[in-house]
Specification:
Low-confidence stretches: 210-219, 272-280
Strand content: 15-25%
CATH class of the largest domain: Alpha Beta
CATH topology of the largest domain: Alpha-Beta Plaits
Strand order of the largest sheet: 2-3-1-5-4-9-10-11
Number of domains: 3
Oligomer: single chain
Distance between the termini: 26 Å
Mean pLDDT: 85
Largest sheet: 8 strands, mixed
Number of helices: 9
CATH architecture of the largest domain: 2-Layer Sandwich
Order of helices and strands: HHHHEHEEHEEEEEHEEEHH
Number of strands: 11
Helix content: 40-55%
Radius of gyration: 22 Å
């Protein structure tokens, strides 16, 4: 019991619970002023942060009352997410690899798996943009995950995911291997590494796609943003209002430019060390085998499970926790 209490105290210190309580008091004081609510979007963001902070403190207080070893272990693991951007919400994308309809179907299966995981974690998420496949599945999808530490938890999921199964798209049910790429970026507000000039931006506006009938968009609310120096193109059509889509597109661009800057820095470091830099598509991190046997195996940690269906239903906590521990 004494050891458990010591571990809780250590977690509270690392998470800076006293600092979180001060931040809660500051937001509560701000929200009592009339001018706080004049900017509705900023007020909503602050109140969301208040709710997240309160939830974080409630988790530690619950542990002090109920000595739950499993929950304490999870909270201890969270304290190791100490990277510069680990505490931020995330931008999460899935891209179908080569293989046509098979790969696009696999990308949609992965999307379902991750959404189920987000829902189990009670994380707020929002579809930003999606390109459907011609016959089935999706070519790509991008979601915003608005939860503290979402980037820290999910960053190890970035890389190539491989599926082996009997194909549902041909009569002979032949074994098929498909690939999809997962991309995870932090939602960065302001950072000195990324400078965006208005003159470097090219905006286009168009009607968001819909299924027809009364839902057809008659106003050009969707946006396409091109960053001229890098050639990066961002599309966003999730929101009903153009200004909201513009803001999301800028947030995505900041994250993409940060990733580009980070990748260039890593490449230079590899050159100095005379090492080789692998392309993202060559970074296969996990295999999901559904035929001739069932097995999900993470190729970095060696963690594996025969319950492939549970994994595809969003039970990926143990896979992710193994990844976090392997990086300690």
């Amino acid at each position: 019991m004494d050891d458990f209490k010591k571990r809780i105290e250590l977690v509270k210190q690392k998470l800076n619970i006293n600092g979180l309580r001060k931040e809660i008091s500051q937001i509560e004081a701000e929200s009592s002023k009339a001018e706080f609510w004049q900017n509705k979007q900023k007020a909503a963001e602050k109140m969301k942060k208040l709710s997240d902070l309160q939830k974080e403190i409630a988790e530690t207080e619950e542990l002090e009352k109920n000595f739950n070893e499993k929950k304490l272990s999870k909270l201890e693991l969270k304290t190791f997410l100490s990277g510069k951007y680990d505490s931020l919400p995330a931008i999460f994308s899935i891209h179908a690899g080569q293989g046509g309809v098979e790969a696009m179907d696999w990308a949609e299966i992965l999307k379902r798996m991750y959404i189920k995981y987000f829902e189990k974690k009670e994380w707020d998420y929002q579809l930003v943009d999606e390109t459907p496949g011609e016959e089935a599945g999706i070519k790509s999808t991008t979601l915003k995950i608005d939860a503290p530490y979402a980037y820290g938890w999910l960053k190890f999921e970035a890389g190539t995911h491989r599926l082996v199964r009997q194909s549902p798209f041909n009569a002979d049910r032949l074994r098929q291997t498909s690939f999809a790429l997962v991309e995870v970026l932090p939602q960065i507000k302001e950072t000195p590494e990324v400078q965006i000039k208005d003159e470097d931006l090219g905006w286009q506006f168009f009607r968001a796609s819909a299924k027809g009938g009364q839902n057809v968009q008659k106003v050009a609310t969707a946006v396409r943003l091109r960053h001229k120096p890098s050639g990066i193109v961002i599309t966003c059509q999730a929101q009903r209002y153009q200004e909201q889509n513009r803001k999301i597109a800028l947030d995505l661009l900041k994250a993409k430019l940060w990733a580009l800057t980070s990748a260039q820095a890593k490449e230079e470091e590899q050159k100095l060390k005379k090492g080789r830099t692998k392309a993202a598509w060559g970074t296969q991190i996990r295999s999901y085998v559904l035929h001739p046997y069932k097995m999900v195996k993470d190729l970095r940690t060696g963690y594996e499970t025969a319950n492939a269906q549970a994994v595809l239903d969003g039970e990926i906590d143990e896979l992710i926790e193994a990844e976090v521990r392997s990086m300690l």
